[in-house]
Amino acid sequence: xxxxxxxxxxxxxxxxxxxxxxxxxxxxxxxxxxxxxxxxxxxxxxxxxxxxxx
Length: 54
What we know:
The protein is mainly alpha-helical. It is 63% helix and 0% strand. The longest helix is centred in the C-terminal third of the chain and has 34 residues.
């Protein structure tokens, strides 16, 4: 019989790997959001320049 003293580990639990289809969906979503972010940043710059002219 082995005696274990002290408290057990309270560390972060290990993550289970994602299924390939879920990982693919997440990568597609990240790409879509990056493209949208780039578009919105360009729009914001345009509006700032337009406001500076007025």
